[in-house]
Amino acid sequence: MSTELFYLVLVTALTGVLWIPYILNRIAVRGLIDAVGYPADPKPHAPWAQRLIKAHTNAVENLVVFAPLVLAAEMAGATSGVTAGAAAIFFWARLVHAVSFAFAIPWVRTLAFAVGFFCQAAIAWVLLIG
């Protein structure tokens, strides 16, 4: 498995498990019955869980861009040190983004998002000039 595909799997797995902490918070705050139901006036999540929901949504939105870029690079045979490095950095940037978003760490969240964007742009650039 290439480095790019390895990190695509890690990014996908991370995105796939980000919901677990905020669902556990939902159960803790609302109780199991209201957590799985549709209460008329649900109790709000803890602030960190509300932020993690947003981080998860953002992770899904970015996976939709990252995955096709990595797959296109693989199919085009355009993988290189640049694409491998960008894929690895993208994973760590997304992890930092989720944690800093959940814990409300200003600047770090935005910087991590920007780093992830530039990683996607680097892979796209390699594909476009290739």
The CATH architecture assignment turns out to be: Up-down Bundle
* Count of helical regions: 6
Q: Biggest sheet: strands, sense, closure?
A: none
Taken from the alpha-carbon principal axes, the silhouette is: elongated
Radius of gyration in whole Å, from Cα?
A: 17 Å
Characterise this structure:
With 130 residues, this protein is mainly α. The protein has one domain (3-16, 47-129): Membrane associated eicosanoid/glutathione metabolism-like domain (Four Helix Bundle (Hemerythrin (Met), subunit A)), CATH 1.20.120.550. The chain has six helices and no strands. It has helices at residues 3-17, 19-30, 32-36, 47-76, 81-102, 108-129. Helix 1 (3-17) packs antiparallel against helix 4 (47-76). 28% of the residues are buried. The mean pLDDT is 97.
Précis, in short:
With 130 residues, this protein is mostly helical. It has six helices and no strands. Helix 1 (3-17) packs antiparallel against helix 4, helix 1 packs parallel to helix 5 (81-102) and helix 4 runs antiparallel to helix 5.
Name the descriptors.
mainly alpha; 6 helices; Four Helix Bundle (Hemerythrin (Met), subunit A); 130 residues; 82% helix
Task: Break the fold down into its secondary structure elements and pairings.
Layout: H1 3-17, H2 19-30, H3 32-36, H4 47-76, H5 81-102, H6 108-129
Helix pairs in contact: 1-4, 1-5, 2-4, 4-5, 4-6, 5-6
